Amino acid sequence: MLNIPIIAATLITLLQFVLTVGVKQPTGPDKAGIAILWVFLEVPRWFCLAIVLWSLTRRDGFAWISASRDVQTFVVMAAHVLMGFVVLTAVVAANDSSSPLAFHIGTYLVGFGIPVAILLYCAATVNPSLEAALPMHVLQWILTGSTAISLVVAVVVVGIAMKDSFDREEAKAKERALENDAYYKQRLAELEALPKDGPMGPFLHYIHNEPGDIRQRASKAVQERPTFLADMAALLRNEWRQEAIVYMLAEMPNPPDELAPAAADAVKSLAADTVQQSTRGATYDDEFGYECRLSVQVADRFPKHAQLFAGPLKELLAGMKASPDKRVASAGRYEIEHWLKRYEKNAGRS
Questions:
Q1: By three-state DSSP, how is residue 328 classified?
Q2: Element (H or E) spanning 122, and its range?
């Protein structure tokens, strides 16, 4: 009689495997429906195996765990509950097509390897004739290993869930704190008072070192402007050039090539201003090094247009070296030299 639930559990496992591996998984709202389907498939299989496992404990099928049937029942059913949770989590995760391949392989091994291990043990115990093909001592080790893996996975999943819960609570606490933060309210009111279609420059004052979500709000307002690229190009060529450069480095990891000429003009103007200011000498070591690094970082964002930045960087380096005060860009000048060496090396190759 116990072969009936074993066969039923085997068929459900095969169906899950076919649906997981062979059927293209939907996205959007339908994805949640697929997850619910796994629950409907997992629950009957779990109960089928629970019936078999409980029956085997009554027959001393797990005497290698303990001589007491009560202890066998407790250990086996507790492990079955644990493995059921882990298997369901793994099978649902296996249907996330956005996950990397290594993650998929791991979820397949856990989601289908553990049920197969239980099924083999149950089949061999119920049908002694199978012991020649399925040695019992090997199955015992496989079942023990599956339980250990399930315990580790469960601890990891619970840990991740607890961390996510703590992170959400922390975020909510910060939001509540911001609601009573006078400085945050002031900065938010100032930001919201700026006309959406007004000059873009003033928005850049709210991009760095701001409380709460001020930076995100300001960055969103900037990037949603229909004339964003034209406005950015204009800022790079006027008195807002340094703020525009800092914004571009912080918020635009891959700026479009059409901004390269304006960015090169910004570096040229920044270099001229820096050289002029450095003629008075430095008040501390590596003064004006920040401007040097800023210029190099901008040039690195436009590798296809390096020739536009070579001239301004050479002028900036020459100005730093011309200062009699060795503290002027004492470290920053070496970053320019390194960039220029790379540029000349690449230019020689082409």
A1: strand
A2: helix 101-126
State whether residue 85 is helix, strand or coil. helix
Output the DSSP codes for 153-165.
HHHHHHHHHHHHH
Q: SS3 of 287, please? A: strand
- 200 part of a folded domain: no
Q: Tell me the C-alpha distance between 291 and 271, whole Å.
A: 8
Cβ-count burial 71-93 (b if 16+ within 10 Å, e if not): ebbebbeebbeebbbbbbbbbbb
For the chain, what is the domain count?
A: 2
Query: How many C-beta neighbours within 10 Å does residue 3 have?
Result: 13
Tokens of 66: 């303990």
Contacts of 160 (CB under 8 A, 6+ apart): none
DSSP string, 225-265: -TTHHHHHHHHHTSTTHHHHHHHHHHH-SS--GGGHHHHHH
CA max distance for the chain: 96
Pairwise CA distance, residues 6 & 156, whole Å:
30
For residue 147, being part of any structural domain is answered with yes
Residue 328, domain member (yes or no): yes
Residue 169: domain span = 3-176
Give the residue from 350, 259, 274 showing the smallest Cα distance to 312.
274
As a three-state string, the secondary structure of 6-36 is HHHHHHHHHHHHHHHHHCCCCCCHHHHHHHH
pLDDT in tens, the chain (350 residues): 788 999 999 998 888 777 766 655 555 455 555 557 767 778 888 899 999 999 988 888 888 888 888 999 999 999 989 888 888 787 767 666 556 666 667 777 888 888 888 998 889 888 888 877 888 888 889 888 888 888 888 888 888 888 888 888 887 777 666 666 788 888 888 999 999 889 999 999 888 878 878 888 999 999 899 999 999 999 999 999 999 999 999 889 899 999 999 999 999 999 999 999 988 888 899 999 999 999 999 999 999 999 999 999 999 999 999 988 889 989 999 999 999 999 998 887 66
